[in-house]
Design a protein that fits this description.
Helix content: under 10%
Order of helices and strands: EEEEEHEE
Radius of gyration: 13 Å
Shape: globular
Mean pLDDT: 93
Largest sheet: 5 strands, mixed
Distance between the termini: 36 Å
Strand content: 25-35%
Oligomer: single chain
Number of helices: 1
């Protein structure tokens, strides 16, 4: 199963270790159908926006899928859904299902990275 990650699961981010046994496929970009919000230590993608999101695709095992669903509190906080990327490929992606993003900044570039200086 292929999953598109755009936040703390990307290489160099805090939860990437969950993908250590899985296969990195490539960097990818979604269609311009989302908004990406910076919630501080992690982002949230919301459907219905006008922006593309930059992330990475991984081919994951069933074990990893279970662990990602737990991390993302699927289907309560984030919901795993099939999305179409810019190149037409369809993959799974976790979209915000509940939670308030009002007051949170939109990541206009579509590429989220945690501000490591805030963690010191």
């Amino acid at each position: 199963m292929k999953v598109f990650v755009y936040g703390s699961l990307k290489r160099g981010e805090g939860n990437h270790w969950l993908l250590r046994e899985d296969y990195y496929v490539r960097k990818a970009i979604t269609r311009r159908e989302f908004d990406l919000y910076d919630l501080g230590g992690f982002p949230a993608a919301v459907a219905g926006g006008n922006n593309a999101i930059v992330g990475e695709i991984y081919d994951i095992s069933n074990k990893t899928l279970i662990n990602l669903d737990i991390l993302e509190s699927h289907p309560d906080f984030y919901k795993r859904e099939i999305v179409t990327l810019q190149d037409g490929e369809q993959v799974y992606m976790y979209l915000l299902n509940s939670g308030d993003v009002s007051g949170s900044p939109i990541v206009k570039s579509g590429e989220w990275t945690v501000d490591k200086s805030l963690l010191a």
